[in-house]
Amino acid sequence: MIKKEGETMDRDTIFLYIIAVIASCFGLINCIQFFLKGNKTAQTVGTIISFKTINPENSKFRNSKWATISYKVNGRTYQSQNCIQVPMASQIGTTITVRYDTQNPEKLYSFFHFTNYCITYRCCYLHCSGYIQSCIR
């Protein structure tokens, strides 16, 4: 690519910055959501009672499995109002750890703090590396 006089960043770099900023905002919003709702949620073990896949079940590429979970809280059995994403290898009867709303135990949460930390770290890394590269040029 031929640089014009006075042009400091090319279009590709600007595009990558925009993606890094959007992804950073996504990670930050999820972290804030986790910390705000973290003390209003609890964990329990649940069992998958039904699931659906986005694409046909035999398709592993670009597919995801969403399950309805049955779980107990304080001796009472609940069935989730919302579906959560589970590993593709999961089957009906598989037990998984779930996080539910203590005020409304029928609502499950699907945010995972490890994933949020990884996304935030990666976005910060991309942002800083892009900044350093633009300074070197």
Task: Report on this structure.
This protein has 137 residues and is α+β, with helices and mostly antiparallel strands. 37% of the residues lie in helices and 28% in strands. The protein has two helices and six strands; from the N terminus they run αββββββα. Strands 1, 2, 3, 4, 5 and 6 form a six-stranded antiparallel sheet that branches. β5 and β6 form a beta hairpin. The longest helix is centred in the first third of the chain and has 27 residues, at 11-37. The mean pLDDT is 77.
Give the end-to-end Cα distance, rounded to a whole number of Å: 14 Å
Q: How many β-strands, per DSSP?
A: 6
Mean pLDDT: 77
Helix content: 25-40%
How is the secondary structure organized here?
Layout (H helix, E strand, L loop, with lengths): L10 H27 L3 E13 L11 E9 L2 E4 L4 E3 L8 E7 L6 E2 L3 H24 L1
Antiparallel strand pairs: 1-2, 1-5, 2-3, 2-4, 5-6
Helix pairs in contact: 1-2
Structure described in brief:
The chain has 137 residues and is α+β, with helices and mostly antiparallel strands. Helix content is 37%, strand content 28%. A hairpin with a 6-residue loop joins strand 5 (95-101) and strand 6.
